[in-house]
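User: Sequence recovery, please. Input:
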């Protein structure tokens, strides 16, 4: 599949619709009642953030077929990058879209001077867990913790 990858510049209705669909696919294991509807304000915050870029993959016909977000930030121990929510529409899976998004996110992190890039992937996301080592990621032996400060 031939795709182009761009940085989302504004929170358009098209982008909001695509992100709603894609995030439901990413979190398919959650019941509808557990999923909050992505708001235009949230998408606008992501697009406007100076520390992150929302990457959008478009098919030849212009459809949004995948997205990811890459954040670059400084800590006392170095400049870090984090890739979050790599998701490809089910109609475009297995055609290199996830790899292209991940490689572009890594390229942007490198360009921004990040020392390393981290991401997480749930064990049930088998294709993603095959993709990341192919792109150069190494599995780390670490614990990931989350504290929910608010529900959406």
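Assistant: Recovered sequence (152 residues):
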């Amino acid at each position: 599949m031939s795709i182009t990858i761009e940085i989302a510049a504004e929170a358009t209705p098209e982008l909001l619709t695509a992100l709603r669909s894609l995030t439901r696919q990413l979190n398919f294991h959650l019941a509808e009642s557990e999923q909050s509807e992505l708001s235009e304000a949230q998408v606008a915050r992501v697009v406007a953030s100076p520390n992150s870029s929302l990457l959008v993959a478009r098919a030849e016909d212009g459809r949004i077929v995948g997205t990811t977000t890459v954040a670059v930030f400084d800590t006392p121990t170095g400049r870090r990058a984090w890739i979050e929510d790599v998701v490809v529409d089910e109609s475009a899976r297995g055609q290199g879209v996830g790899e292209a998004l991940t490689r572009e996110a890594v390229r942007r992190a490198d360009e921004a001077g990040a020392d390393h890039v981290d991401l997480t992937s749930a064990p049930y996301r088998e294709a993603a867990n095959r993709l990341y080592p192919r792109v150069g990621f190494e599995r780390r032996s670490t614990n990931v913790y989350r504290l929910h400060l608010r529900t959406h």
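The first helix runs from residue 13 to 26.
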